[in-house]
Design goal:
This protein folds into two domains: about 100 residues, Urease, subunit C, domain 1 (Roll), CATH 2.30.40.10; about 280 residues, Alpha-Beta Barrel (TIM Barrel), CATH 3.20.20. It has 13 helices and 15 strands. The strands form two sheets. Strands 5, 6, 7, 8, 9, 10, 11, 12 and 13 form a nine-stranded parallel sheet that branches. Strands 3-2-1-4-14-15 form a six-stranded mixed sheet, with no helix packed on it. β8, α6 and β9 form a beta-alpha-beta unit. About 55% of the residues are buried. The model has no long low-confidence stretch (mean pLDDT about 100). It binds N-(iminomethyl)-L-glutamic acid and fe (iii) ion.
């Protein structure tokens, strides 16, 4: 197996607290990395680096773990920029626009859906993302949900069945939930790792707590692991349901009660124990003109937080984890270090993936290189294309 020695790394973020400066980011200055095949074989100060078959000099750039974008909806067709325009002048988001994307997605050929998903994946990689999750949820028939997941599997192993995104226009709620938990689940379970539901009693289109529990329980019985869209528009039952079912993550968390924060703190993952991560999606608050959740208060309460884009044509059409990091720092009170950790190690916990989100020995060699001397520039220089995934 061929090895590569990377040198000239001004600052290496490992996310391994036993390395480097002892902080959670495990920062090593003037560092080197040896990659063997697809795995990190050695990290440390450059002056101690072993030799390797090939050398690559990064000329004073910082290196961080590739971003883990644990929440996206990349399989879709159509455009909702007019809906965005209306929101910017006061129209609230309630999920009703999802129907527009469902109609466009159903009408699109496979090749178009795959080409668009691949283009978004390339956009993400060009901005430093190396692991991504992709959901179905714009098909809402047995055939269209299964097709969406087949396309998602072309670009990632982290696929999520979201047949319970909304009740399709004109459908009976009960009958639709029977379809989702019956024939649709049977067709989709072999194509997915996760099951998700848009749990939001404040939206007439989404599902209440009881309905969401039925969907997730059925998915779990079919071998899928649960995750939840919860507490986006109101302090509804999503967080409590996610914690109760041992979901890997509850995503959005825009509106939280004190009891929700307590529940998340008690259920957060810890060394040697899986748990429920609070995944924050500040691009959604940006793009729906909504209040940002208080990430500072969550971290101070002991909640493990992840950051993700939620890239989708409705509530947030960005593919940029650096943009999300900048928002988390500027608008939600995280330090640059906490935001970077949440976008890497936090995302890995939200996907229960011990092999990514850090650069310790044995991790996947998913590196993001920054056109900057330190990770702090990710938030310090918002909107500047600093990060890229390293192709070795
Ligand atoms: O995560 N909130 C529910 N679903 C997506 C948005 C889908 C859409 O508007 O197209 C979300 O925000
Ligand atoms: Fe989403």
């Amino acid at each position: 197996m061929s090895s590569v020695l990377l040198t000239g790394i001004s600052e290496l973020v490992t996310n391994d607290a036993s390395l480097g400066d002892g902080s959670p980011l495990g920062v090593i200055e003037q560092a080197a990395v040896v990659v063997e095949g697809a795995t990190v074989a050695w990290v440390g100060p450059q002056r101690q680096a072993p030799d390797a078959d090939q050398h690559l000099d990064l000329a004073g750039r910082a290196v961080v773990p590739g971003f883990v974008d644990s929440h996206s909806h990349l399989v879709f067709a159509g455009d909702r920029s007019r809906e965005f325009e209306a929101r910017m002048t006061g129209t609230p988001y309630d999920g009703g626009g999802i129907a527009t994307t469902v109609a466009a997605t159903r009408a699109a050929p496979d090749e178009l859906l795959l080409a668009r998903a691949r283009a978004l994946q390339a956009e993400m990689r060009a901005q430093g993302t190396t692991t991504l999750e992709v959901k179905s949820g714009y098909g809402l028939t047995v055939a269209d949900e299964a097709r969406s997941l087949r396309i998602a599997r072309e670009i990632t192993d982290e696929t999520t069945f979201l047949g319970a995104h909304v009740v399709p226009a004109g459908a009976d709620r009960r009958a639709y939930i029977d379809l989702v938990t019956g024939p649709m689940l049977a067709a989709c379970a072999p194509l997915a790792r996760w099951v998700d539901v848009f749990c939001e009693p404040a939206s007439p289109h989404a599902f209440d707590g009881d309905e969401a529990r039925v969907v997730l329980t059925a998915g779990m019985a079919a071998g899928l692991l649960p995750r939840v869209h919860g507490n986006q528009l109101s302090a509804g039952p999503g967080v409590r349901l996610a914690v109760d079912l041992g979901a890997a993550s509850v995503d959005h968390c825009t509106h939280l009660s004190a009891a929700d924060v307590d529940a998340l703190a008690g259920a957060s993952p810890a060394p040697g124990r899986d748990g429920t991560v609070a995944t924050l999606l500040p691009g959604v608050e940006f793009s729906t003109r909504s209040p940002y959740p208080d990430a500072r208060a969550l971290v101070d309460a002991g909640v493990v937080v992840a950051l993700a884009t939620d890239c989708n044509p409705g509530s947030c059409y960005t593919s940029s984890m650096p943009f999300v990091i900048a928002l988390a720092v500027r608008e939600m009170g995280l330090s640059p270090a906490e935001a970077l950790w949440a976008a890497t190690a936090g995302g890995a916990l939200a996907l229960r993936r011990p092999d990514v989100g850090h650069l310790g020995v044995g991790a996947r060699a998913d590196l993001a290189v920054l056109e900057a001397p330190t990770y702090r520039h990710l938030a310090y220089r918002p909107g500047v294309p600093l990060a890229r995934a390293l192709d070795l």
